[in-house]
Structure formats: C-alpha cells, structure tokens
Amino acid sequence: MKPDHTKSSKVVDPSSKDDARDLLRRVRRIRLLTRHVVSDALAGQYHSAFKGRGMEFEEVRPYQIGDDVRSIDWNVSARLGEPHIKLFREERELTVMLAVDVSGSLAFGTTTQFKRDVVAELVATLAFSASFNNDKVGLLAFTDRVEKYVPPRKGTKHVMRIVRELLALRPEGRGTAIGPAIRELDRVLRQRSVVFVASDFVDHDWERPLRAARQRHDIVPMVVQDRRERELPSMGLVEFTDAETGARRLVDTGRRRVRRRFEEAAAARDERRRDILRRMKIDPIEIDTGEDFIEPLTAYFHRRERRRSR
C-alpha cells in the first residue's frame, strides 16, 4: 500500500504531438545522462564482468619472454624449430535481455524520482553499455502480463528504440507477475543470455521460474525500492492506496506501534527475498530512489570480476 499524496506521473500518448515532443525530450535526456557514464565508467567494467561465449583461436606467433608457457604449441614449435604459442581471443558477443517491471507499484517515489524513472535510467545505461561492447540487447516489459517484447539486436539505433518503447509504454495491466515473465523469456531465448530483471519484487511465486531460468541463463535481479517502503514517517492519519489493486486503507502513522509493525513487515519481506536469492547463489543489485545507481552498479561489476578471476 502506498500513500496517495505522492506525485502523479503523466501517461505518454505517442499519438499526441505534445506527448510525442515530451517523449522525444525524455529519450534525449536519458541518452545524455547515460552517454558519459557508459563511455567514462561502465563500459570497461561491464566488459570485464560478463564473459563472452568462449575462446576462439586467433593465431600462432613466436614465444616471447613473459608469455605463459602453458600456451606453447609443441607441435608447431617442433616443426619450426623454435617455441611458438597459440593466441586466443574471447568471443565477446552476448545476448542481453532486459526484463522490466512496469506495474502500478513502480509509479511510486518520495524523493525526486519514481521507481520507474530509476528503472528507465538504469535499463538505458545497461543497454548502452551492452551496445558499446557489440552485444545484442532485447526488452521484455511486464506487469501481470507481457506488455512489450523487443527481440535482441545490435546497434545504438536499436537501443534507442528500446528506450523509446519503454518510455512510451501504456501498460494494460497494473499487477506484478515476475514468474510468468521469466518463463516467457526462457521460452523465447534460444541461447544462453544475460537477463537483467528490474523490479521492486513486490510479488510472490517467482522463485521456481527464476530457479529454472538460472539453469540456462545468467540472471541478475535489480531491486529498485523507495526508503518509505521500509520506514513509515509519523504523519498522523494517512490514507494508503494500493497502486496495483486500488484498495484503500486509513492508517494512523502517528502511533509508534503501527510504524514499528510496518518496518518489521518490510524487513521480513526484504530478508525473504534476499534469502531466496542467496540459496540460488544469485547476487542482486539493490537501488533506492534518489541515490546514484552508478555506485551499486559498479560495485556489482567489481564483485563479478573478482569471482571470475578466482
């Protein structure tokens, strides 16, 4: 349940000239916000954090001091009379799928952003990072149903299309169903992919589909929340509205016991989610509205790179 006094967000109608101009401004803003971040900070870290599909033979060359002796090709060395080594290069091309929650609960925020604004910028940053590394990028936007599917392709124009589609989307559903969205991705993806799941994870029954998809794909949950979903301020009587069902409830936030029960319930929900992901050995990225998401994103990339180098 969310307080109904939070700001409302404009729904974009691409058929309207004013809304089309507004959409174009938003797309350009996100492109400007992400451009320097991708080129200056994240592209190299993204490259290091995510493996390619394997190693491909490139050439044989004479051994040089400092080369790894394990790379020596003994057959070629014997034939040519001097040590030669085999060089390999990583096959970089990956398929990156962005599974994005666009349900009603994402239209909430008590700072300068809604959760869905953070998700849009985060997803765009990852999409441009993937494109910068010549990876394919696709989109699956979902509520309690699949709202939009954009098959993975390469190129900046394709990434711009994904950003436009996400910003212009007018969801038909209001609820959240992460499990069916993951099952649909598992069905349509023909090869192993990196799947970023951007949601507040205010949902249930997603553990089994996520566990099944993890057998084939690299799953990266991105949990976007607002601190007021964990801490209830003392504001007297407040009417809360469930953003997905429309249900309303009057709550006396001035009562300390009410605030404590709210915080305990939120902490228990977060711990359940973290426990499920721990048991699956999945490392999530957790982001709050109003904070710079680059820090938790780069920290995640560093953790992956460390695990990869072990």
How does this structure look, described?
- With 310 residues, this protein is α/β, with parallel strands linked by helices.
- It has 2 domains: 2-51 and 93-309, Rossmann fold (3-Layer(aba) Sandwich), CATH 3.40.50; 54-91, no CATH class.
- 42% of the residues lie in helices and 22% in strands.
- It has a 6-stranded mixed beta sheet with strand order 6-5-4-7-8-11, with helices on both faces. It has a 3-stranded antiparallel beta sheet with strand order 1-9-10, with no helix packed on it. Strands 2-3 form a two-stranded antiparallel ribbon.
- α6 (207-214) links the parallel β7 (194-199) and β8 (218-225).
- α1 packs across α4 (156-168) and α3 runs antiparallel to α4 (156-168).
- The longest helix is centred in the first third of the chain and has 33 residues, at 17-49.
- The radius of gyration is 23 Å and the shape is elongated.
- It starts with a strand and ends with a helix.
- The model is unreliable at 2-15 (pLDDT under 50).
